């Protein structure tokens, strides 16, 4: 019985390896017999070479690719530096394409691959028109027309992975097609829609992260405009209970705004050895601390706050060094401590624990 179980285990293991989900690609490259083609896969930070195939005497070739269920892959086939084809391959796809050595190609067997081909074709046509525009006014019109067409594409293909390359299109290295702050709304819509179909996709997770960053910037712009009304940049961040706490809503004579690195042991000691005694002595006189924990791990931050029994206002948005709060106050290093008195940021230069205590004695007699 044990021998049978062992043999069955080997069979299952062999099946797990050989029966892994795959996509099959076949193609023909005109006028390219006996040439080596390179197959690359998109990662979240670039591309990586995953295979190379040699064409036959007629330019034909085949290859297979492991594709996990629910995690389509962006794959590119190159002849030297020339991209022959861009493919969006899902589990079980059987795709074929025909290409020539001038960069023209057609694809069949996958609706997503055809959509991707059309997306790239539309973009190439736009760039040609944009570069050839004789005046700035004409160039602007070409851009606006294309931008509107891409918005229409995003809205009409909410569950297609082909919206991802659309969102990342750049006119040049420094100029994305989606360059307005309010475009964060389109990134968020795409991320949320795609996540309902492809929750495990690394590409969708990357879009979600970028959407969060752009939303952060959008909130930052709104906060800067609002800052004119309160005398200092305002912000609202969640506390350990998940409830939003607004900085401008802290009603104390002096607010100590403290930015700290949750993972820094010295910062934790500072909480215990400096801030706690300071808070105990001056809180009743009108001191409140608004401490911004900088980390991507909100659960870990909340655990530290509770373990250290920090009695003041503790907030964290979970965006780490990408937190809009850091940009809002131009925080260049951690920890950073500022004082807000009489509705404005104090100009006093605070040096170390002694300087902080001296300032408290001046402000909270």
What would you note in describing this structure?
It is a single chain. The chain has 365 residues and is α+β, with helices and mostly antiparallel strands. It is 42% helix and 25% strand. The protein has helices at 2-18, 111-132, 136-156, 163-167, 184-195, 202-230, 265-282, 298-308, 324-328, 352-363, and strands at residues 22-29, 36-42, 47-54, 60-66, 73-79, 82-89, 94-99, 105-108, 170-172, 175-176, 236-238, 244-246, 254-261, 287-294, 313-315, 336-341, 344-345. The strands form 5 sheets. Strands 15-14-13-16-17 form a 5-stranded mixed sheet, with helices on one face. It has a 4-stranded mixed sheet with strand order 4-1-7-8, covered by helices on one side. A 4-stranded antiparallel sheet has the order 3-2-5-6. Helix 8 (298-308) links the parallel strand 14 (287-294) and strand 15. Helix 2 (111-132) packs antiparallel against helix 3 and helix 5 (184-195) packs antiparallel against helix 6 (202-230). It is elongated, with a radius of gyration of 28 Å. The N and C termini lie far apart (85 Å). Residues 10-18 have low confidence and may be disordered.
């Amino acid at each position: 019985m044990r021998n049978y179980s062992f043999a069955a285990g080997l069979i299952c293991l062999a099946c797990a390896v050989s029966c892994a989900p795959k996509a099959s690609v076949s193609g023909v490259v005109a006028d390219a017999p006996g040439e080596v083609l390179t197959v690359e896969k998109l990662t979240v930070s670039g591309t990586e070479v995953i295979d190379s195939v040699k064409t036959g005497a007629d330019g034909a070739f085949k290859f297979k690719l492991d594709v996990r269920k629910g995690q389509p892959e962006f794959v590119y086939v190159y002849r030297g530096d020339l991209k022959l084809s861009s493919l969006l391959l899902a589990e079980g796809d059987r795709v074929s394409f025909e290409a020539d050595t001038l960069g023209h190609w057609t694809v069949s067997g996958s609706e997503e691959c055809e959509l991707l081909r059309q997306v790239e074709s539309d973009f190439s046509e736009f760039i040609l028109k944009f570069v050839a525009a004789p005046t700035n006014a004409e160039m602007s019109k070409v851009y606006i027309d294309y931008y509107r067409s891409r918005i229409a594409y995003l809205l009409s293909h909410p569950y297609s992975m082909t919206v991802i390359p659309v969102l990342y299109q750049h006119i040049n290295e420094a100029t994305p097609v989606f360059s307005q702050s309010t475009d964060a709304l389109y990134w968020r819509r795409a991320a949320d829609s795609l996540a309902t179909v492809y929750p495990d996709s690394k590409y969708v997770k990357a879009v979600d992260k970028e959407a969060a960053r752009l939303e952060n910037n959008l909130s930052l712009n709104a906060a800067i405009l609002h800052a004119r009304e309160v005398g200092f940049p305002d912000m609202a961040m969640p506390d350990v209970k998940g409830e939003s706490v607004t900085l401008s809503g802290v009603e104390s004579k002096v607010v100590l705004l403290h930015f700290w690195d949750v993972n820094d042991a010295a910062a934790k000691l500072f909480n215990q050895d400096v801030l706690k005694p300071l808070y105990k002595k001056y809180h009743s006189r009108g001191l409140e601390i608004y401490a911004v924990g900088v980390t991507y791990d909100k659960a870990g931050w909340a655990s530290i706050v509770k373990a250290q029994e920090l009695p003041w206002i503790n907030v964290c948005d979970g965006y780490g060094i990408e937190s809009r709060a850091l940009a809002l106050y131009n925080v260049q290093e951690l920890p950073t401590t500022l004082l807000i008195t009489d509705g404005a940021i104090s100009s006093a230069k605070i040096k170390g624990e002694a300087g902080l205590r001296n300032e408290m004695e001046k402000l909270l007699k």
